[in-house]
Write a structure and sequence with these properties.
Length: 202
């Protein structure tokens, strides 16, 4: 199972450790991220689950999230720290980041399918779900960026078997750890996602 201890060695900066929330099983990393945001968690907090029982994508579609098979992670961003806050631009920008991370860590060439899917050999290996949370004034206060990547999953339910794929079915499970760390490194260091890092006391 994914764990904080496994991820730490691959982090570019050990201070990111304080922002990790790693769970064995969650209904949805996005839902847990929303709860943490309402509780006043730090900008840049990353919620990771080894499995999800109710993972979902756009339009309420379910996202198959078995234990040991993928990277299921949600980032919590304060809107005031982001250059982008609208769901579609955030999702598109995130897709570029995720595709690049997959390319570097896994050595494959994924393709982005507008607006929130990433494909490999014509099959969906990743879905991205961006959700905004409004504050008391009605404006967007938090942006929740959820990413689900099929890494080593071998068997998919019949209803998605023809369309879903994985990066390395049955492959090296360390890919999950390294890919999760790569996403954390990018999203917690890039100016695009974390512009005021030096000013927030992180």
């Amino acid at each position: 199972m994914l764990s904080t201890e496994q991820i730490i060695p691959y982090l570019a900066d050990k201070k990111y450790t304080a922002k990790l929330r790693v769970y064995d099983t969650l209904a949805s990393t996005n839902d847990t991220a929303k709860e943490l945001a309402r509780g006043g968690c730090e900008h840049g907090t990353a919620v990771i689950a080894d499995s999800q029982t109710a993972g979902r994508g756009r339009m309420g579609k379910s996202f198959y999230s078995p234990s040991g098979g993928g990277v299921y992670i949600s980032f919590i961003f304060r809107a005031e720290f982001l250059k982008l806050t609208e769901p579609t631009p955030v999702t598109v920008a995130a897709a570029v980041v995720v595709a690049g991370a997959i390319r570097r860590v896994c050595g494959c060439e994924p393709e982005i399918k507008w607006v929130n899917d990433i494909l490999l050999h014509g099959k969906k290996i990743c879905g991205i779900l961006t959700e905004g949370m409004t504050g008391a004034d009605g404006g967007v206060e938090w942006v929740i960026l959820g990413i689900g990547i099929n890494v080593t999953t071998e068997d998919f339910p019949a209803e998605i078997k023809e369309t879903a794929g994985a990066i390395a079915p049955g492959g090296d499970e360390s890919l999950r750890t390294r890919l999760a760390a790569e996403l954390i490194n990018i999203f917690l260091s890039s100016d695009e996602w974390h512009e005021p890092l030096s000013n927030e006391g992180a």
